[in-house]
Amino acid sequence: MIVVGFTGKRGCGKDTASGYLEDKHGFVMLDFTRDVLAPILVKQGKPVTRENLIDTGMEGRRKNHNGIWADKLSEIIKQGKGKNFVISGIRFREEVDVFRKNFPGLFKLVAIMCDERTRYERVKRRSTKGEAGISFEKFRETEKRPTERVIAETMKTADFSIDNNDGLDDLYSELESLMEVLKR
Q1: 54 and 147 Cβ atoms separated by less than 8 Å
Q2: What angle do CA 162, 38, 157 make, to 5 degrees?
């Protein structure tokens, strides 16, 4: 079993990288938004927006601990024995700690690096989580939210890093190189 976790700032390519491992290497993709937080919002009758996701995530962390959502994903992973998993969107170091504790030697954190302007253009283009037409100023403002501020520190704890400033072909090439290392 291999458990890969992608961390990086919004719009860096975490979901794209996760989707690639799912499509090309048969990984099961898990995502904090889709698999944990969005179902909570839907149950509460709230729209799935970035603001609501941040608020719900932080509320759970305040009531429990910063690794609470990683605990939830770990439960899913433990049920899928023999499968490889990829987790998109690890933000907190405590989440990394949970995965490293639950999957010793099997979990690898990968930081995806990308410059701010490129990330902004990607976020605008994908227009998910209520961010269609977002201004650059609002993009930068959101980067100061509690769930976003911690990402840079979490990225420093990565086992590997990937540069994603140059397009899909380069990203896929870097992911193939990563897979060669991980499968050894």
Answers
A1: yes
A2: 30
Token pair 């990203």 in the structure block, residue: 171
Q: What share of the chain is helix, strand, coil (3-state, %, to 5)?
A: 55, 15, 30
The residues pairing with 85 across neighbouring beta strands, listed in sequence order, are 3, 28
Summarised one tens digit per residue, pLDDT across range 105-142 is 999 999 999 999 999 988 888 766 666 678 888 888 88
What is the residue range of 70's domain? 3-182
Give the number of C-alpha atoms closer than 13 A to the C-alpha of residue 78, restricted to the C-beta side.
12
**Region label for 13, one of left (φ > 0), alpha (ψ between -120 and 50) or beta (otherwise):** left
Q: Let me know: does 14 contact 88? Beta carbons within 8 Å.
A: yes
Supply the CATH number for residue 90's domain.
Answer: 3.40.50.300
CA–CA dist 112, 160 (Å, integer) = 9
Q: What is the pLDDT of residues 13-37, one digit of tens each?
A: 999 999 999 999 999 999 998 999 9
State the DSSP code for 66. Answer: T
Q: Name the pTM for this structure.
A: 0.88
Tally the domains of the chain: 1
Which pair of tokens denotes residue 70? Answer: 């990683």
